[in-house]
Write the C-alpha cells for this entry.
Amino acid sequence: MPAVVESGRGIVRGQPMKPDSAGSAWAAGLGFEVTHSMVMQVLRLAAIPARLWEVPVPAGYRLTQWTGACPEELVDSYAAARRAIQDAPSGRSSHREPAWTPELVRDADRELAQAGAEQRVVVAVDDSTRQVVGVHVVHSYPHRREIGYIHDTSVLAAHRGRGLGRAMKARQTRTIAAERPDLELICTTTATTNTHMIGINHALGYETARTMNWVETTTAGPAGKPA
C-alpha cells in the first residue's frame, strides 16, 4: 500500500472479486467500496447445439469478419462504432472505456500482434451507408489458447434493438467452432444491470459462472490501514 499511496494517483481500483471472498473482506477492511458488479458468463462450445447459433442478420445490414488487423477501408467507422461501448453500464466505477480513434485501433492491432494474440472481429455494416455500426471482438492468447475472451460487443445507439448484437455473436461463435477446434470456452463479463445482454448470451448457450465486484478507494483511504 505505501507504494500505491506514494504513486500520486488519486484512485485505487481492485478487480474482480467474488462478493463473499476473502479478498472482498480484505478490501473492505482497507476502505474499498463496491462500485460496479458484473457477471461472468461462459460458453462451452462442445456442449451447445449449433442450432442456437443460426441467427439471421437483420434486414438492411450485412456482417463482415476478419482475423487480425482491421481492414483499412473500415477503420474510421470501426473506431466510431467501438466508441459505443462507452454507453455500457458501469455503475459508479471511475473506469472509462477508451475513446477509440483509427490511430488507437492501429496501436491495439500492433500490440496484439506483438503479443502473439489472436483477434477475431465481426462487424455489422449498414447497407445504406456502408459504415460499421456494430462490433464484436474476441481475443485469445498464446498461454491459454483454449479460451476466447470477448473484449467488446457494442452497437451504435441509432441501430440498437434490431438484433445486431445477437447476430454478430452467433456468427462469431459459428466461425470459431469451425476454425478453432482447440478453443473450448468463450468467456464474457456483463454488468449485472445489463439484463438485455445477459439474456442474449443465455439464448446463445452461455451459462452464468459467477458474480464479480469491482472496488475502489481513494489513495487517502488505505493510507493509514495495515496491508
Q: What stands out?
A: The longest helix spans residues 164-179.
